[in-house]
Model the fold of this input.
Amino acid sequence: MTILKKPDYDNLNENGRRAVLESLSGHYTDFTFLDCRKFECFGLSTETAVYLNNGDEFVFVPGGRVVLGWNSISEGIDSRSARELLESFGFESVRTLHAYLAARMSPVRSADIPPMLVERVPREIGWHRVSPDDPEFSKNKVFRETLEKFINSKRNEKVIPKALRLRKKDGEITAELYKPVSYKELISSSAAAGFRLPTEDEWEYFCGGGCRTIWRWGDSFNYGYRLRYFGSNRSAGGNYDLEKPNQFGLRIANDPCCYEVLMDSEVLLKGGDGGKNIGAKLGPAAGYLPAATYYRCPEEKEAEPRYLEDIGSGGTCCRRIKRLDEAPLQKKLNALLKKKRSAKD
Done:
């Protein structure tokens, strides 16, 4: 019995599952158990738990064997989605469109995913908050002048790419400076803190849970969703459908303008195209295609050397994970559940 992997994990009763989830914080003492929660999204659900690590939320994601990748439309794409994608990419037939999509998706394969504690919200890379009085800020004439103009403006954000970011909320202004971080430095600092970044297999599992469709919800785009970059719903106060927690409680693949950084994989970046399709004024289906679970952005493969030197450039973020040591945990958890059953009897 592999308690931390599907299907055995799903077969635990409520009390047994809670006991297992609470015990994880006893084994990994830098994680504090907060509570058990059930997350539901796009027809999938997981009963899991949320933990706190130095102020950041993590969630337990059960492991298991899963099929990943995409090479064929399983549900059938509706006429509106097909029409938009055909027009956006200049194709005349759905067959040609299908070949185009298949060439940009990861190959179909089976993968064994280990159980993990996964950071719920990815973090930006390279940006750090400073006070305007900090010498790093105050001695820079451009920064000072930019701040003075920003204070008297009606704008809520001002960005000097890869240098300065100012934000205004409820009358309070925050300043952030950018410091380049190499890919090697990012991996090293994550490891020093006891974490790693996900592989492509792990990321796709986090995103779609093994879905067999283009997007997590199906092969057709849902034009009723509230989206950040399209339609009259753009000012919906941030309550965007794709930015809600998914079936594992993760915020993932919700912004095509951003990428998540991977490790030990054929690709370095996942989850977007830097906003290229949106910037090209394509429609919502094409704009959010790079956020599809299995999508690989071919243009970014050519740009990888630049990202390796400065992985924080160009809208990247990272999600820390901790793979769980199954063998020692399994013995403890089996003993725990046996004790629970004996007490009940």
Observations:
- DSSP finds eleven helices and 15 strands in the chain.
- The CA atoms of residues 228 and 235 lie 8 Å apart.
- The radius of gyration is 22 Å.
- The mean pLDDT is 92.
